[in-house]
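User: Hi! I'm working on a homework problem where we have to compare a predicted structure to a textbook description. Could you give me the structure for the chain below?
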Amino acid sequence: MRFILKERIFSLRESYYIRDEDGNEMFEVTGRLISLRDKLTLSDRQDNTLATITQKLLTLRPVYTISRNGQPDAKVKKDFINILREGFSVDMEGDLPDLRIQGDIFEHSYTITRDGVTVAQAAKKWISLRDSYVVDVAAEEDIVLMLACAIVVDRITHEEEEKEDEVQHDSGAG
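Assistant: Happy to help. Predicted structure tokens:
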């Protein structure tokens, strides 16, 4: 199933909306605009919380936890240095097999796999002012988990781009 994830602009809080391929609004992701750490909530159209995405503080590399009611937590960790491709591990609690996210850092295109089999793909669209991703989730897969993983990848890549911009600005201001 295909979903379009778009970041809202001109909002008093950080938020995304997620539509299906027919344009129906299916989910909303909200968070505080300014907070000590990233904490987002993924909800359905009836405002039921389906997942909470929380950034772990004081880590060497970005780590987010995806918590869902009645489901094992998932920890998304960015790989240490990988020059050609961007990678993330998704460590699933319980007996569930882990996921792997691999992507092209220049194209913002990512594939989520389980045991080498593609379960979802996310690709950034460059046609609007807002960030937007197309997320394709394989049949029978956990849609909420796959969308939450795509959101985490977007958050981590944004954080890194902002840090690079700050470094470039600081070094140029000298």
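For your comparison, note the following. The helical segments are 143-172. The first strand starts at residue 2 and ends at 7. Good luck with the assignment!
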